[in-house]
Structures are given as C-alpha cells and as structure tokens.
Design a protein that fits this description.
Largest sheet: 9 strands, mixed
Number of strands: 11
Radius of gyration: 16 Å
Length: 198
Amino acid sequence: MRDRLDHFREALTETGKGSSDFDLNPETVLPEGRVLRPAGVLAPIIEGERGLSLLLTKRAAALKHHPGQIAFPGGKQDDGDADVIAAALREAHEEIGLSPDKVEVLGTLPPHETVTSFHVTPVVGFVAEPFEIVPEPGEVDEVFAVPLDHVLDPDNYLVQSRRWRGQIRHYFVVPFGPYYIWGATARMLRSWTQIIQP
C-alpha cells in the first residue's frame, strides 16, 4: 500500500496540462480575460478490507447549485486560507468531519476550470486513521466510498452528452453502482488516470 501511495506522490509532482468542463466541447469559445475564482477540493483516500478507496459526497438535493450531484469535499478559497490546499482541507472538515491533521497530503492534480468560473485544484490525500464521518446538514446528503481502482481505470470512463444552454455538451462519466459520477468530478478523476499511467 505504501508503495502505491509513493507512486501517487511521485506522479503528482509532474506538472500536467490543466483540464476544463469544456475539454470535450472544442466549439466553445471562452472569453479572454475571464476571472476565475480559486477553489480546492480534497480527494481523500482511505484504506479498508478491500484495499484503497476514495471518499466522495452526494450534494444535498435542496442546494441551489448542483443539487444531488457527486462531488469531492471542497470549495472556494476564503481570505483566511493560506492556499487552495488549506481551502480543501478546511472544507473537507466542514463537509464530512475529516480533521486536517488526519490527512497526509500526497500532492495536487493539475487545476480544472469549471463552467461556474472556478479554478479548482484537486488535492490528493491519504487518511491514515479512521474518523467519524459527519455530513454537513443541508450541504451533504451522503458520503460514500468508491474503490480507487475503479476510478483510476480509464476503461471505466464513458463520454455522454446532454443539452445545456441550448447546445449539446459532452462530458465524462464514470458510473459506480447507483452513483452517477460525471462532469467536473469525473473530468478531474480522468486527469488522475492519465497522470499515473506508466
């Protein structure tokens, strides 16, 4: 297990090309000089009886933005955050009860630009100790684990599409059981698969 984590750490030192919600839609022209807000999300790896898994959240159905979608814990960088890593750790503590001192940060994935004008940095961390998962009321409906091998296998990814603002938009999905992981979350995970390939 430690060898695999070391492999992740080494791979995450490589500076790869960033991704965006527009990767599969080359006809979309992004405005010059657009202002993106920095944000950090945490990809928390845990170890269980069946090996390594990734914790993800299902956003509350009553939320105004992205209700019911699968997401990493995380959010925008606040003025009090030292950087996007600190933002990701703070938000994970607020959203799922994961204390920052339980997270061994392995590195970061290339940033991702969202349709909502965020510049998101995914932070990969290993949670060495068990912790009590406490979903934030009103924000998180569920916290669940996905086998890491599932989301790091590029063969598990599909490209689907739907109409958005009058145009057909294509995006990655990586379904797992009853969970439909798509959009920005799936795209950031897809970047991870590309980085760790030998």
